[in-house]
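Subject: complex prediction, re-run

Hi both,

The earlier run crashed halfway through, so I resubmitted it with identical inputs.
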Amino acid sequence: MSSSVLVTGGNGLIGNALKKILPDAIYITRKDGDFTDICQVKKIFKKVRPVTVFHLAAKVAGVKTNAEKNAEMLAVNVQINTNVLSMAREFGVQKLVTLLSTCAFRERPENPPSEKDVHVGMPYAGNLGYGSAKRLLDLQIGLLKQQYGCNFTSITPATVFGPFDNWDINDGHVMAALIHKCYLAKRNNEPFHIWGSGAAVRQFIFSYDVAHILFEVLKNYNDSETLIVSPMEGISIRELVEMITQVMDFKGPVIYDQTKPEGAAARLLNNAKFKTLFPNFKFTPLKDALQTTVQWFVENYSNARGIIA
Amino acid sequence: MSSSVLVTGGNGLIGNALKKILPDAIYITRKDGDFTDICQVKKIFKKVRPVTVFHLAAKVAGVKTNAEKNAEMLAVNVQINTNVLSMAREFGVQKLVTLLSTCAFRERPENPPSEKDVHVGMPYAGNLGYGSAKRLLDLQIGLLKQQYGCNFTSITPATVFGPFDNWDINDGHVMAALIHKCYLAKRNNEPFHIWGSGAAVRQFIFSYDVAHILFEVLKNYNDSETLIVSPMEGISIRELVEMITQVMDFKGPVIYDQTKPEGAAARLLNNAKFKTLFPNFKFTPLKDALQTTVQWFVENYSNARGIIA
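This time it finished cleanly. Structure:
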């Protein structure tokens, strides 16, 4: 693969991880063009003429912004996705791999949902805009295959973490926020405060693993149906916090504030299909991934995203 | 109301009906701009600066095209709607009324669904693209109200018919196709062939009534939730065919070809909310509406849409 690989969202959490595997691909960021404007997207495709596209560009935010700006999260992501898919189809892209999100799945399913359940029920109201844009993306991929035979597909990763994350404590993702809070607690000799009881269970995946899987999917997965990827069945926030304090060598008190919300008891997806299709894929052990992430965070603290120094 | 009323889709079935009520509004058609391109939509809003918008523009087709071009129906309608809504919000439009479709509702519900059921289940596969674009439109309207307080809303009319319809026999809507087939049977002294047994039940609404209701909704309905409008509980294709033959004075044989598909046994929506909110609205009697439509069709036969003379 050479310069005919286009990566949108080249400066994000996963885009940066992909650079380690595909250093020669063309990485496009919002500085290169406004993806909500179809003319600008067309200009990029005309210039690059990609054979392969990793479509990672998205307007992403934390739970707070997602809930407050549902309409904007919906409109912007729908525009970005529709424009990129339309141009990928028009310019004859041979393979496109993009990302869905656990946010696309329904609120509080009785059992961890599988790939068949993307459109069942409604997404959580606080993610309704972002989650619905991801659902639409899934639908578009399926219909583009049906009408034009486009070999486009998506993966649905568990909650991603790694270097280049958004570290905003109030509006970042849970892993980045926990690392950041632990860092500040250690630096300031204060207790490490956790929202909720710590009992909530989540699935995480290291951004470098996502990058490897995107590459595997590019080569070996030709179904339009999304592929759920998660290295684990789930981990409680309490177990995660213990691991973070070990990795960060934090020895102060950890306080669980049960007056604060902790979200759904469990937010899990069924990863059986991935395990069947890629039985030999080796995920990075969580602790190793955490170590790499924490090291990056500490080294890049002064200019990482979401840090108000 | 004056020139500050913008109507998109000004040359369609309902756009033309609206001209009888609002002759001074600004009617925009695809000749005035490509609505899939946000820059062109912005240019129109900049020029017109509308206070009120009737957003009727859509890529519409018959069942055949809908099924064959699901991806295109989805992409184009999503682009049109997202661009128009974004600009209406950005330019501070005070009220926007648009159209959903029965296609947005799920396939084969057990009972006629109400407004609460727009997002329950999946639309019929043959309309998945078009129906999903309408669902997204509904979601966008709700979230724009939530985030920005936009007073945007929609109605969901039963199957619309009237002058300026698409009369294509193979890919038009059922009412227009039946009128056209009856016209040809009479002219050519041939039997009037109907697909299926005639038992299928449908709801219809006259385009002039839709125009009146759009105007009523503009003035008197300020909820973002869609409003289902239908003058009737349903009519069988057989009853409809009898009425058409009367109106068109067709005396030849009518043949029901039961080897041909007739679609779902019933495709009905629950119009209770409309009846409660607008108890005094007078719908045009079906036979009168048919007479007006047939007269227009006969007078405009040579240059009506979907006619290959």
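The domain at 165-201+234-267+285-303 of chain A is CATH 3.90.25.10 (UDP-galactose 4-epimerase; domain 1).

- K.
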